[in-house]
Design goal:
This protein has 320 residues and is mainly α. The protein has one domain. Helix content is 66%, strand content 5%. It has a 4-stranded mixed beta sheet with strand order 1-2-4-3, with helices on both faces. A hairpin with a 7-residue loop joins strand 3 and strand 4.
Length: 320
Amino acid sequence: MGSLQLRMNLLLLALFGLLFLAITAIGEMMGMHDVYFYFGVSVFMMILQYSIGPNIVEWTMRIRYIKQNEYPDLHLMVEDLARRAGIPKPRIGIAQIAVPNAFAFGRGINDGRICVTEGIMGLLNKEELRAVLGHEMSHLKNRDVLTITILSVIPMIFYSIFRAMMWGSYGRSRRDDRGAGMLIGLAALLLYFVTNLLVLYGSRIREYFADKGAIDLGNRPHALASALYKLVYGSARTSREDMAQVEGMKAFFANDPSQAKREITELSSLDLDKSGTIDEHEMNMLRMQEINVGVDQKMMELFSTHPNMLKRIKELSKHN
């Protein structure tokens, strides 16, 4: 699949290029040729996101960091995975939410945090949980957590420009230039959709690399596939109120819980013995099969933070 770092860097370059062109155009149309000021404001917004992002995640997900004597098995798993990955052991937390999942975040490798939700603890066995933790450890090792956080700010900037041009003080105070303001606003809205699609693409490809990274850290493919399968079922049983609580943070998760009810039908066909898990034999059977993803599913994937789950498990079967 090529180098993740190369893909993410090219994506970062493309989005920054679009941002710079947009800022330059705005400066010229407003008669303010000091575009570096606007660029500085944009950079400041990204630095601010970098600085306070982890605190926002901690507050939103209600994270409590745990000591080794509280969850010794969890600490041992993370410690072993960090040693295999060759990175410092991240802080470990429990997110006090019901949606079963896990996620990694932080400002970099030396500030890494791996968290599991309360909902996942009784759902997975040890091998499955270790595979999910390996997936999250790979996000930290690949440094894609920081990159996707920075990338996600760029669509927000374009949306802010759209709002300012259409309803902000610029449109009210410069009536003679309202047409130019609307033009800039519509262009910013278009760039918001384009850059958001690019960010979603970056989010999806990093999941494939994290899956492979989990295998490279010594986890068996069917254990991760089985864990993902259980997360889908667990998410489908979660209440709407609990799901709404994590809607803005689902890009951090190991899977997209909002897609769970749609994914159940696809994944149930993989569980040949109806045991509620995906074993090594079932992964071997999947490896020899062709999968067909419909046009509607492909379109939905374009607007999703995670790959189509059937395609994702099919990719895992190649490593079985």
